[in-house]
Amino acid sequence: MRILVTGGAGFLGSHLIDRLMEADHEVICLDNFFTGRKNNIQHWMGHPKFELIRHDITEPIRLEVDQIYHLACPASPIHYQYNPVKTIKTNVLGTMHMLGLAKRVKARFFLASTSEVYGDPDVHPQPEEYRGNVNPIGIRSCYDEGKRVAETLAFDYYRQNGVDIRVVRIFNTYGPRMLENDGRVVSNFIAQALRGKPLTVYGDGSQTRSFCYVSDLIEGFIRLMNSDQTGPINIGNPGEYTILELAQKIQHEINPDVDIVFKPLPQDDPKQRQPDITKAKTYLGWEPTVPLQDGLKHTIDYFREYLNISP
Ligand code: NAD
Ligand code: UDP
């Protein structure tokens, strides 16, 4: 198949491209390189079945493809809050352009949505039926509400135009190729510990997250895309940890001598988050296989090499 991956030079997109190329598909990677890097896809450059297009999805584009994995959107709070109006445009205009493309060429369309559509959840763990607790005017809204509109658009194109959609709600994912400076918690703590700097826990560290290793997530993507389910389906690892526990694990793994310091909690920071993955198990036969301990080891090895820090 010929498959378009928007945001293909980013963290998740580049891992997805690896899987699709290994399965012998033709892959078009489309990216504006806001948070993506050529390095992430360098190893496919020059391959006859790989094509890279520098393009911003807030502008329309015409291509002939069979499937579209739509991932383009900055994912970390630092980056999506850098230009919030652009983030909304990417989620709304960008998703509309990609759905329009899917409609025109009758491609199957996969939307990378997020657990952030549940906001600061008061139902725990979060099943897909939960409608969320999102602040529409807060500093995270450009992303949370943007993704909620993106989901609405996907379902309206499905109902009105018969576009064949798949919607995944991704929970916090980590692994090699995360950006060192994007402020997400796993990459922050690992880079800090490797450099011998204090680990910055926001608030008292009692807020929780559930961390999925990237290879598990991508397996879930491919299963959903090739299933008969529209979703939305949660993909994430139900293993839930407080942020302080995560800091202690990384401190223990890298350097027990680094300090843990406490910083103010950002506005609207969700207090808890854990996926209910009953649907993924039932309909896709999917569940995560990589324990946090192992995934952290792979990620630490990557950052050690990337930052050129010897063990
Ligand atoms: P990322 O920032 O590494 O990748 C996003 C990619 O999209 C980058 O390559 C960036 O350059 C590109 N991009 C951004 N705006 C664009 C635009 N207007 N036009 C073209 N390209 C653009 O983030 P990621 O972690 O790989 O996330 C990928 C997708 O998964 C995003 O849609 C994100 O919302 C979603 N997601 C990720 C997580 C996670 O834990 N990583 C969790 C929930 C949802
Ligand atoms: N966090 C932290 N220290 C950091 C970076 C993040 O304590 O250096 C916290 C953050 O406040 C949040 C959690 O870790 O409670 C996860 O943050 P991230 O930005 O990775 O993901 P999200 O909040 O979008 O789930």
SSE topology sketch:
Blueprint: E1 2-6, H1 11-22, E2 26-31, E3 50-54, E4 67-70, H2 77-80, H3 84-105, E5 108-114, H4 141-161, E6 165-170, E7 173-174, H5 185-194, E8 199-202, E9 208-210, E10 212-213, H6 214-225, E11 233-235, E12 240-242, H7 243-254, E13 260-263, H8 278-284, H9 292-306
Parallel strand pairs: 1-2, 1-4, 2-3, 4-5, 5-6, 6-11, 7-10, 8-13
Antiparallel strand pairs: 9-12
This protein binds nicotinamide-adenine-dinucleotide and uridine-5'-diphosphate.
Give a count of the beta strands, DSSP E runs of length 2 or more. 13
CATH class of the largest domain equals: Alpha Beta
How far apart the termini lie comes to 43 Å
What about the largest sheet?
A: 7 strands, parallel
CATH architecture descriptor name of the largest domain:
3-Layer(aba) Sandwich
Kindly describe this structure.
This protein is α/β, with parallel strands linked by helices and 311 residues long. It is 37% helix and 17% strand. It folds into two domains: 195 residues, 3-Layer(aba) Sandwich (Rossmann fold); 87 residues, Alpha-Beta Complex (UDP-galactose 4-epimerase, domain 1), CATH 3.90.25. The chain has nine helices and 13 strands. The strands form four sheets. The chain has a seven-stranded parallel sheet, sandwiched between helices. A two-stranded parallel sheet has the order 7-10. Helix 1 crosses helix 6. The chain binds nicotinamide-adenine-dinucleotide and uridine-5'-diphosphate (UDP). The site of nicotinamide-adenine-dinucleotide (NAD) has 27 residues, from helix 1, helix 3 and strand 5.
